């Protein structure tokens, strides 16, 4: 192999980066790169390949091509592999590994594909040398095979671990950004050239400092390959140590010169733990003379005066709020970004990576360029803002202001109408708004010092982005009106539910607390489930149960979190039995009973069972039964599918078998088109009490139907 011999090199990179990678290759080697199946390719000498391995800040992996073909078939793959003289690349006593991607009719699994390629290679060694390389996860040679629709590629991997693993990462914050994506953001803002001009760098939300460290490495002309212990090509038989050592020495000399001339690079974050680790990394890399991170929140940030800063570049990866409930909290955070940009950094170029266009707009600056990237699985946009002395804040849309004011006025009106009721009954949880005006299709419940906001799914005619922006504006208006921090406004989207989906767990924050209702303590959880654990529309019925429970036996079917049971206990019930199919909610029901001084036992039983099956098997009778079944359920744990309109006759009949003479079944459900069957009406004394069971804060809509059902006296 001569120094002038050329090879084909294939490079992979993160999505959205390959255009920048082509420019980087040209800057490193002077060679114009082109597109390749999985990224970028270029033709060059082995020294050019070494240079890219050493200096690329954007690539993931680099392969040296041995062969490729447009004949995509199993036979062609075998011929392509067998045509290579593998003993030129690895010793018979060495080790190898095969990385296989793609599929053929005969190869439907990548592990099987790797096994076949490995077999063809070792068969060649056995025939020529009577021995074969071993298979190892840290091999002397990694063979790369990629089967695409129109072409197959065969090569060897030069890098080993992905190049984004620089080796300096010690600790990360909650949402770390990969090193080569951080570098891509900096390249997008032309940071290498800005740093040569002596301009400074800032990251005001640096987390574990990845962007800061990458900016410092660029500013110091510090080759990222110098941080690696070794490259895969160093165990390759055709490796040229002389060329490689020459390049390493050149890189070290450039680093020495670059460290002396680099400008200031600063990071800031509110998390002192990750800041400490970031600074340790900067020290270990020899960058701490000109680069440092400080603990300071965005709200407290001011332009440092103890560093000589030349207006330059601010790049950050602020939190995105991937969950809908996180975004209202972040709106003001993004506005603060804009405020700082206008008031303190008007001479600085700015770049922000976020996945949410609504949040980006809150910055209030007009981007000069947008570029799409992927931060892990999340598609994000890098918003690039140029230097602009006259940056103007976006003014709020007058129509939007008018709509938001209308929402606030309606909430104020509703609160005024409920004021006497809230005071009289000392309520801590109640509904303050329920889609009263068309622009805001949300339900808002107040739980003590918290707001629970549920958005009904918007019509398909309204764009998702517009609907979400309207929701976030509503949240801010509610926060201002009630003087409740946005962080205590929990936002969820309510859609048409099937089966038990409405009760399924949505998260695992375990941020429950209790509220008081008619002297009864009840645990609620606004974060982890679609519903809070307390149906506020049944408040009058719970009060009635409490007032009627003295000395009676009480059965709560489909008990959910047992709020009716707690009211019955507080009212003096001699015995309670609560039945539900969910162990989670039965435990919650037990917790509610304990909050009120009760305890599970013979007199207060919590039964984990299918209600229909349990009713068929038990012989117990009760004075008062409450049954509030779901509208529909196809839970796998139930013996049969439940449709309340179709099946309520059976449910009522079985429940009535367990009702004492003179007793009462309180039956309700939330199916708005519900019609009681003629059979039930004829067989029992049925009285609809929906009008009395719906509280004042739900009068605008009928959230449920409710019936008193008794045995007909003979």
Automatic annotation (TrEMBL):
Which residues does the UniProt record annotate as the domain THUMP? 48-158
Q: Does the keyword Ribosomal protein apply?
A: no
Q: What is the first-listed, main subcellular location in coarse terms?
A: cytoplasm
Q: Which terms in the Gene Ontology molecular function aspect does this entry carry?
A: 23S rRNA (guanine(2445)-N(2))-methyltransferase activity
Its UniProt entry gives the catalysed reaction(s) as:
guanosine(2445) in 23S rRNA + S-adenosyl-L-methionine = N(2)-methylguanosine(2445) in 23S rRNA + S-adenosyl-L-homocysteine + H(+); guanosine(2069) in 23S rRNA + S-adenosyl-L-methionine = N(2)-methylguanosine(2069) in 23S rRNA + S-adenosyl-L-homocysteine + H(+)
| Subcellular location(s) of the protein | Cytoplasm
Pfam family example for this protein? UPF0020
Q: Cite the EC number.
A: 2.1.1.173, 2.1.1.264
- Top-level division of the source organism's lineage: Bacteria
Q: Which UniProt keywords apply?
A: Cytoplasm, Methyltransferase, RNA-binding, rRNA processing, S-adenosyl-L-methionine, Transferase
Keyword Cytoplasm appears in the UniProt entry: yes
Report the PROSITE patterns cross-referenced here: THUMP
The record ties this protein, via PANTHER family, to: RIBOSOMAL RNA LARGE SUBUNIT METHYLTRANSFERASE K/L, RIBOSOMAL RNA LARGE SUBUNIT METHYLTRANSFERASE K_L
Q: What is the role of this chain?
A: Specifically methylates the guanine in position 2445 (m2G2445) and the guanine in position 2069 (m7G2069) of 23S rRNA.
> Would you identify the family this protein belongs to, as annotated?
Belongs to the methyltransferase superfamily. RlmKL family.
What is the name listed in the Swiss-Prot or TrEMBL entry for this protein? Ribosomal RNA large subunit methyltransferase K/L
């Amino acid at each position: 192999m001569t120094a002038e011999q050329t090879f084909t090199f294939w490079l992979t990179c993160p999505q959205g980066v390959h255009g920048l990678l082509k420019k980087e290759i040209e800057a490193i080697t002077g060679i114009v790169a082109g597109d390749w199946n999985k990224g970028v390719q270029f033709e060059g000498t082995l020294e050019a390949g070494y240079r890219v391995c050493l200096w690329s800040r954007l690539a993931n992996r680099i392969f040296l091509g041995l062969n490729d073909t447009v004949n995509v078939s199993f036979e062609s793959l075998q011929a392509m592999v067998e045509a290579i003289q593998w003993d030129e690349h690895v010793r018979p006593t060495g080790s190898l590994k095969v990385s296989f991607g793609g599929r053929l009719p005969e190869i439907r699994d990548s592990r099987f594909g790797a096994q076949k390629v490995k077999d063809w290679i070792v068969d060649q060694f056995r025939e020529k040398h009577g021995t074969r390389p071993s298979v190892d996860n840290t091999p002397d040679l990694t063979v790369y095979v990629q089967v695409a629709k129109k072409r197959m590629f065969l090569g060897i991997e030069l890098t080993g671990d992905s190049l984004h693993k620089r080796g300096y990462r010690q600790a990360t914050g909650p949402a770390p950004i990969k090193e080569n994506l951080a570098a891509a953001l900096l390249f997008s803002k032309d940071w290498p050239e800005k740093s040569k001009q002596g301009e400074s760098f800032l990251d005001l939300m640096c987390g574990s400092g990845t962007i800061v460290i990458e900016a410092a490495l660029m500013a110091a002309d510090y080759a990222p390959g110098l941080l690696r212990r070794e490259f895969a090509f160093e165990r390759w038989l055709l490796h040229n140590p002389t060329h490689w050592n020459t390049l390493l020495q050149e890189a070290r000399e450039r680093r020495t010169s670059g460290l002396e001339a680099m400008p200031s690079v600063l990071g800031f974050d509110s998390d002192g733990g990750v800041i400490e680790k970031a600074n340790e990394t900067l020290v270990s890399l020899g960058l701490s003379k000109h680069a440092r991170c400080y603990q300071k929140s965005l709200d407290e940030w001011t332009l440092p005066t103890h560093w000589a800063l030349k207006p330059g570049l601010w790049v950050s990866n602020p939190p995105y709020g991937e969950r809908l409930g996180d975004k209202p909290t972040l709106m003001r955070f993004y506005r603060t970004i804009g405020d700082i940009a206008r008031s303190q950094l008007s001479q600085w170029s700015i770049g922000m990576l976020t996945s949410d266009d609504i949040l980006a707009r809150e910055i209030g600056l007009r981007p000069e360029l947008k570029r799409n990237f992927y931060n892990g699985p999340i598609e994000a946009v890098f918003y690039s803002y140029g230097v602009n002395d006259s940056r103007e804040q976006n003014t709020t849309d007058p129509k939007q202001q008018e709509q938001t004011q209308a929402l606030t006025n309606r909430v104020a009106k509703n609160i005024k109408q409920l004021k006497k009721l809230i005071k009289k009954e000392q309520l801590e949880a109640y509904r303050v708004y329920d889609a009263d005006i068309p622009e805001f299709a949300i339900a808002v419940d107040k739980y003590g010092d918290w707001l629970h906001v549920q958005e009904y799914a918007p019509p398909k005619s309204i764009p998702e982005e517009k609907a979400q922006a309207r929701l976030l504006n509503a949240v801010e208006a509610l926060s201002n009106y009630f003087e409740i921090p946005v962080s205590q406004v929990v936002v969820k989207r309510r859609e048409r539910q099937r089966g038990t989906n409405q009760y399924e767990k949505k998260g695992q924050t375990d941020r429950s607390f209790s509220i008081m209702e008619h002297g009864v303590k009840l645990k609620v959880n606004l974060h982890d489930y679609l519903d809070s654990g307390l149906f506020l529309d049944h408040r009058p019925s719970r009060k009635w149960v409490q007032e009627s429970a003295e000395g009676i036996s009480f059965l709560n079917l489909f008990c959910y979190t047992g709020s009716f049971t707690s009211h019955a206990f507080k009212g003096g019930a001699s015995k309670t039995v609560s039945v539900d199919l969910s162990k989670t909610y039965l435990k919650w029901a037990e917790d509610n009973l304990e909050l009120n001084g009760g305890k599970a036992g013979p007199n207060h039983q919590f039964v984990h069972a299918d209600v229909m099956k349990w009713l068929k098997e038990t012989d117990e009778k009760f004075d008062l039964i409450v049954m509030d079944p779901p509208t529909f359920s196809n839970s796998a744990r139930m013996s049969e599918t439940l449709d309340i309109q179709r099946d309520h006759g059976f449910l009522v009949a079985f429940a009535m078998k367990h009702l004492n003479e003179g007793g009462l079944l309180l039956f309700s459900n939330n199916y708005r088109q519900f019609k009681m069957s003629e059979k039930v009406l004829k067989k029992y004394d049925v009285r609809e009490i929906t009008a009395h069971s719906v509280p004042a804060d739900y009068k605008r809509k009928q959230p449920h139907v409710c019936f008193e059902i008794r045995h007909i006296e003979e």
